[in-house]
Amino acid sequence: MGGLLGSLFQSSDGGTTWSPLKAETKNSITNLVATGKGLVAVGLDGLVLTQRAGGAPLEVSQRPDRAALTATVIDARGKPILFSQDGVLSTP
């Protein structure tokens, strides 16, 4: 679960308990997608967070155009497709 000012939480027991993840960002998170290979999150100011499966550290990146990202989906090759208020953007 993610939200304002980079808040990000993880549950390993079906949502009974939650623990914070260190996102190293203050940009709000607008969408999260869990994949078989990990997690992808997007947010304001071009924020893209990725985490490999197994609890690896979060990798934080920011698009050079700092577009406010609203959603992401994973394509058939396992690559994220990013969306903003302007529509589909190229991958990070």
Widest sheet: strand ordering: 3-4-5-6
Low-confidence stretches: none
- What proportion strand? 35-45%
Number of domain modules:
1
Helix content: under 10%
Helix segment tally:
0
The arrangement of helices and strands along the chain is: EEEEEEEEE
**Multimerization status:** single chain
Apparent shape:
globular
State the total count of DSSP E strands: 9
Instruction: Specify Rg, calculated over alpha carbons.
Output: 13 Å
| Major β-sheet profile | 4 strands, antiparallel
Compute the separation of the termini in Å.
Answer: 21 Å
| Main structural class | mainly beta
What's the mean pLDDT score?
A: 88
SSE inventory with pairings:
Blueprint: E1 9-10, E2 19-20, E3 29-35, E4 38-43, E5 47-52, E6 59-62, E7 69-74, E8 80-84, E9 87-89
Antiparallel strand pairs: 1-2, 3-4, 4-5, 5-6, 7-8, 8-9
Keywords: Hydrolase
Biased composition (Polar residues): 8-19
Region (Disordered): 1-21
